[in-house]
Amino acid sequence: MRHPLKLLTILTVGLFCILYPAVLASQDGSGHVLISPEETTVTIDDTFSIFLAIDTVELVKDFLVDIQVDTNIIRLDSCKRVSTFFTGPSGAFTYWKDTVQYFGENDSAYVYEIQGSIFGPGNFVNGPGDLVRMKYTAVGYGISPVDFRYYEFRDTLVDPQTHMGNIIELEGALDGQVIVCPTDQAIIYAGPNDIGFLSENGQTPDPQIFSVANPCFGDLQWEASESCNWFELNSYSGTAPSDITVSIDISGVNPGLYLDSIAISSLDAANSPQYVRVSLELTQSYLCGDANGDGSINVSDAVYIINYVFIGGAAPEPMASGEVNCDGNVNVSDAVWIINYVFIGGNAPCDVDGDLEPDC
User: Fold this and answer.
1) Contact 38, 144 (CB under 8 A)
2) I want to staple 316 with a disulfide (CB 3.0 to 4.6 A). Which of 32, 220, 248, 291 is the partner?
3) What is the pTM of this model?
4) pLDDT digits over 81-107, tens only?
């Protein structure tokens, strides 16, 4: 049971917050939430602090922020409020979730949730101000983003479970990064480290580029290797910084999802090798109405559908090639549509409204 005096204090302060003039705030969407400093360079096993900060944000009373980092490179050890940072009326945290929750995982990219509330008079900052000190340890070489995945600032104290109150409109978020270097050696940074290609209806996707860099010491001579028959690189060795183009070759590749990777290695680097993931999704190309897959639309396609519907013949492949009237099913009406198209000049398969453009 809560102490009555404590409850009275909380209620009194809460009432004062409600009565405090809201005219202190003119939430015009001009402020930012940011990581400060924007870039931090450390070495392995170092402990260091970076800050969750706000700039030109007025009447801050409650906040919820999700920050994503690469935990192969840095690990969040603690997260504490910064007791004074406001310009203008002072305030203090009386509610603070002094533990950091992390949830979700995408390989090694963790999301940390930071949440807090401020009791007291209206608080505002008319320049950069540190809100939360995040203490990290460097656990691996490389570059970790410190990115905002979600942020929410409010001008009213709220129940953390309901998140009522007025949202403060911000102009945007400024992400940061941490570079973990050896004391006297290069590292490999390859990014983006996940490249996805989509090929629809037999079209070759455009090439994409990733970069190899060394943000640390010395020179970096690198080599790339892969064992894939559906993409190739324009260069397999070089000196950082370098841009590498990945080109796709879909000839002879069946529809489906393909996953592979490119290894970037170097005798100069403390973190060799590093990998760039490459994916290709190849959708099956087809001609709407060509149910038997012979490359043309004629009465044999209508017969093919009738055999499928009434006597258990083979299904159209893909099924969408026989779904010509866009009703979501393959049935005798699709066969009738094809017959009308072939013999009496009806609308083309998948062109329901007759505008010469497919509708499904």
Assistant:
1) no
2) 291
3) 0.68
4) 775 444 333 333 333 343 445 555 555
